[in-house]
Amino acid sequence: MRKLLMLFRRLFLSSKKRILLLVILLAVAGFVGYRRYAKKNGFEKASVGRGEVVEELVLSGEISASQYAELGYETSGRVVYVGVEEGKVVKKGQILGKLDTTVLNATYQSALADLRKYDATVQNIHDQVKDHSSDETYIQKDTRTTAEVNKDKAWEAVIAAERNLKGATLYAPFEGIVTYVANPFPLVTALYNQTQFKVLNPETIFFKVSADQTEVTRMRINQTVVITLDSFPVQEIRGTITRMDYAPDTEEVGVVYGIKVALESINIEYRLGMTGDAKFVMDRAENVLYVPAVFVQSDREGKYLLMNGGDKKVYVEAGIEGEERVEIKGEVNEGDVVYD
């Protein structure tokens, strides 16, 4: 009985080993067959081509504007006039809104009256001490100085009152479109720290991006840029660099510089804050050998291509590296087949 059990175990274990070996052989054969099938049917291989290779840099940014203003009153008060509504075109200097100026004007007139009063006092004191320039007493000096200081304070009060009076009326700082009105109706109270109107000149819209210190040195004024907005993904917008900041943007992380890209054509549908990508051409080479970027491999000795059915490494020098193509230099010819 024991002999029968031992014989059964040997047969069973041998069968398991044979099954495992068979699975391994089938896996290897399948992999080799797939590689041969892929190469035979054009998978994972490409030909060395000749043509143009472009290195591009893509930076994200947003729509901004040179002439954009958020306006608010310099003092709190009751709104008595609203001269515009959202979407309305305004001229430079046009009145947007106005506060009740009854109290403000009274304060201004009172300040003028105080100024006249203290000015008369100063003139009177000066007449009293005009013959005592060399022997002016301390009492005379104190009286004269007090009068002059009161006049100076009265003058400053006039300036403040006049500014508050003028600040009760808001004007359009430039020609543009009203994009926001906080209180479209009068007889409401406006606070001095609240934005009441927003005005935008759509002709000054541009695309703003940030470039780090290694990127900005490769850019130049008047360089052509292609922009794609997220809101218009199938539309390419052409533009040119018109400004590159000399000082880094302190609101960004790291050392980055603002780049202003003027748009060749402005669509009325573009809005402030719309995001997108700007594509900059950093380098370009024509009539050079290239391969698709995915076929350039690398190891400790450098960059290479797989040739001769994928069994031979041919080391090459990579030139301009684009998103899809890489320029190659070395012992390769146009039409050579490379493998991934």
Helix-strand layout with pairing:
Layout: H1 2-40, E1 45-47, E2 49-65, E3 68-71, E4 77-82, E5 89-90, E6 95-99, H2 102-129, H3 138-166, E7 169-171, E8 176-181, E9 189-190, E10 197-200, E11 205-212, E12 224-229, E13 237-244, E14 256-263, E15 275-292, E16 297-299, E17 302-307, E18 312-321, E19 325-330, E20 337-339
Antiparallel strand pairs: 1-20, 2-11, 2-15, 3-10, 4-6, 4-9, 5-8, 6-7, 8-10, 11-14, 12-13, 12-15, 13-14, 15-19, 16-17, 17-18, 18-19
Helix pairs in contact: 2-3
Structural account:
The protein has 3 helices and 20 strands. With 340 residues, it is α+β, with helices and mostly antiparallel strands. It has 3 domains: 44-66 and 204-340, Efflux pump adaptor protein, beta barrel domain (Elongation Factor Tu (Ef-tu), domain 3, Beta Barrel); 67-99 and 168-200, Beta Barrel (OB fold (Dihydrolipoamide Acetyltransferase, E2P)); 101-166, Orthogonal Bundle (Helix Hairpins). The strands form 4 sheets. Strands 2-11-14-13-12-15 form a 6-stranded antiparallel beta barrel. It has a 4-stranded antiparallel sheet with strand order 3-10-8-5, with no helix packed on it. Strands 7-6-4-9 form a 4-stranded antiparallel sheet, with no helix packed on it. Helix 2 (102-129) packs antiparallel against helix 3. The two termini are 60 Å apart. The relative contact order is 0.18. Mean pLDDT is 86; it is low at 1-9.
Beta-strand content: 35-45%
Q: Which architecture of the largest domain does the CATH hierarchy give at level 2?
A: Beta Barrel
Low-confidence stretches: 1-9
- Total domain units: 3
Q: For the largest sheet, list the strands in their spatial order.
A: 2-11-14-13-12-15
Mean pLDDT: 86
Find the count of extended strands (DSSP E, 2+ residues).
20
Give the end-to-end Cα distance, rounded to a whole number of Å.
Answer: 60 Å
Biggest β-sheet, characterized?
A: 6 strands, antiparallel, barrel
CATH class of the largest domain: Mainly Beta
CATH superfamily of the largest domain: Efflux pump adaptor protein, beta barrel domain
3D shape: elongated
Computed over alpha carbons, the radius of gyration is 40 Å
Task: Please tally the helical runs, counting DSSP H or I stretches of 4 or more residues.
Answer: 3
CATH topology of the largest domain: Elongation Factor Tu (Ef-tu), domain 3
Protein name: Efflux transporter, RND family, MFP subunit
GO molecular function: efflux transmembrane transporter activity
Family: Belongs to the membrane fusion protein (MFP) (TC 8.A.1) family.
InterPro entries: RND_pump_MFP
